[in-house]
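We give this protein:

***
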Amino acid sequence: MFYHAYEHYLESAFPYDELRPLTCDGQDTWGSFSLTLIDALDTLLILGNVSEFQRVVTVLQEGVDFDIDVNASVFETNIRVVGGLLSAHLLSKKAGIEVEVGWPCSGPLLRMAEEAARKLLPAFQTPTGMPYGTVNLLHGVNPGETPVTCTAGIGTFIVEFATLSHLTGDPVFEDVARKALKALWKNRSDIGLVGNHIDVVTAKWVAQDAGIGAGVDSYFEYLVKGAILLQDKELMSMFLEYNKAIKNYTKFDDWYLWVQMYKGTVSMPVFQSLEAYWPGLQSLIGDVDNAMRTFLNYYTVWKQFGGLPEFYNIPQGYTVDKREGYPLRPELIESAMYLYRATRDPTLLELGRDAVESIEKISKVDCGFATIKDLRDHRLDNRMESFFLAETVKYLYLLFDPDNFIHNDGSDFDVVITPYGECVLNAGGYIFNTEAHPIDPAALHCCRKRKEEQWEVEDLMREFYSLKKNKKFTLKQASEHDEGESTKDATDASSGGEKRNSKKSSHSLLSCPSQSFNSKLAVLGQVFLDNT
């Protein structure tokens, strides 16, 4: 599926942003960046195609220019272009590219990602710190630009921008992303909900529908992923507060509805296909039972239509007028991949199989895969979104490839020498941005300049080495600090960090051994057997 779409993009559409599969030509959609090529780059490596990855990196370095008079979506440019380039930069060495001295703290793709992100910074110069939705890449924000931005367009920067700040040493990116996140948090309603669109100058809510879907979705996703990436308790506690309000006001029978953000009254009893990321997000915070129940609701809709319509009326059990299309979105497949990692439930593989069969049967055409305009009669639209290659195919592949390097459990890793000392990379735990571009969280510790942070990296190294030497490091030993040589090594390493900086906790967050799913549940105080 990937190569059928990718090769036709190269043949018929490159250097335009996207392929038009019914007419076998191309169009610019989100800027003029050869977007599908940037979006598909890390998928090539996940599929194991090292030579094409290397070729495309050269093509992008020579051909992509951000000094252009184009109005670009701040949100889309960040998740697709900045995210895609950062991910490819961090995977370069794995792809056999001869990286420059100082990598991962420098490199051509990192410089491109930084250049693209700098073009977005003028959008954040507002009284509230919340960004405009559109920016001109040459001139900054247009004088007549609307100040109304959707919630996701404000809160979906921390993964890419914090990564950029950590790699380049320039704090401005992480600072603006955090300020925007906090502005949304400050403007939540008394009952703890956020609306859909807000005025970034006055901080007045323009669209007051609260839910987990379109316009809001990746704000919640980035609170969780930002918390994991940065080991940030504040971001996680924000999400957990929202999660309580979402359960209290929007959840009915494992469906999530849209409600008025101040009163909590139902405004739209609708399921949107974009909401299907939610079970995957729940699995990331360990709420697997609720995640599976909601996932199974969404899967019934897929089985009804052979895809997820953009809007689905829950009480009527049917599509909503003018919203019957399916543009080959990845969200339900994404959730299946996360949940399969957590549960190994074969139902999730069945969804994967159904998705492959539906997409092949309904949307495959001579020049690629076409957006499904109407799931009722399978009419097609002349568009193949770049996320089909960035996300949909990638999550499908990872669902069915348990041994992919992306699923590394930490037992395998590379040690890289940087100007700031030794650094561990490719040990797994990748955080996917909302366009499915994997970011290696370990890379954020490679380019730090402050002394105590360098010590922290050295402590991590010692712990990794002691874990690798002592394969028998078990859950029991981890809890009983006086037992076992390997535990002693790990605690020695982390207590070394404690002596230098008394504020640091005595046991590193990254030193846990890999545990089976049941063991993790057992740690929480209840033992669940496989057959429950």
In short: The chain has a mean pLDDT of 90. The CA atoms of residues 135 and 143 lie 10 Å apart.
